[in-house]
Amino acid sequence: MISYRSRPLVREKNLVVSDLKKKNNARSAMSELLSKSNAVSTGKKKEATRQKRSAVGVTKAASAAGLRQRRPAAPAQIGTVKPVRPHGNRPVPHVRGIHMTQAGRRAARASFKVMRAVVTTAVLLCLCTGIISAVLILNPGEDGEVAADASIGVPAARVANVETEAFSQAEAMAFQAEPAEVETSQTARHTVTFTFYDRESLVCISGERTVGELLERMDIHLSDAQRANVDTEAVIREDTTISVDAVTYDTVAVNTDIPYETRYVDVQTIPRGTTSTHQKGVNGTQTTEYQVTYVNGEEVDRVQTGEYISAYPTDNIIYRGVGGTLTVGGQTYSYSYYLDCRSTVYTGGGTTASGLPATEQVIAVDPRVIPLGSTCYITGSYCEVGFRTAADTGGGIKGNIIDIYFDTDNPYFAGYGWRNVRVYIFD
Question: Distance between CA atoms of 364 and 370, rounded to whole angstroms?
Answer without folding.
Answer: 10
